[in-house]
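Bump. Still looking for DNA repair protein RecO structure tokens.
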Amino acid sequence: MPLYRDQAIVLRTQKLGEADRIATLLTRANGKVRAVAKGVRRTSSRFGARLEPFSYVDLQLATGRTLDVVTQAESIAAYGEGIVSDYARYTAGTVLLETADRLVVEEKEPALQQHLLLAGALRVLSTGEREPALVLDSFLLRSLSISGYAPSFDDCARCGEPGPHRAFNPASGGMVCTTCRPPASAMPAQATVTHLTALLTGDWPTALQADPRTRRESTGLIAAFFTYHQENQLRSLPHLDLTPGAS
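Sorry for the wait, here they are.
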């Protein structure tokens, strides 16, 4: 079988047989890959611990008919060590992984931007550098944007009229003008719109200035926008615990 090397983030794993495991990976060069790691559930496995969710690894894989096979695994960064010990980080991290798995649909299709975005979010989450809620909200917006669902927080999402506008509607694609505003649109505070823009663009000095009320309103709008454009809620969202101030 032909061999290839790639860097990968482990999104999820599932048991296969008595000792093997199937790992779903988001690789740097080959997009999403499903690969068998043989014997990793045995205590004598050389790289079992390196193929756990949140791990960032350098892999050698053999191309298979349906599933590739992991033949070598070297750790690049064990992000899980700084994530699984803190419940807020862990629940945010599981949403990050599920989101990447959901948005990268086709296997073996390059998804470099999603890979880099996920790697950066996991690194920041694992160090406690920023609150889990901020990391997650920014990731959701930017991941959706990469996938072609970028929300508009300035010009009207329907007609393009320059903003600022007062109404937000997930089905319309973001902020909408008075003429285009559908019934039951949300009316977020201007501070919330500023915060959402900062999260989308990675403007952390501005994002960090938001007060708890602004952050909560932003989180609700992001969740509504994501759920609408992905049709189904993420399985990991109900377990989310992002108490303000948690690290």
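The helical segments are 80-83, 87-103, 112-127, 132-146, 190-201, 204-207, 212-230.

Edit: fixed formatting.
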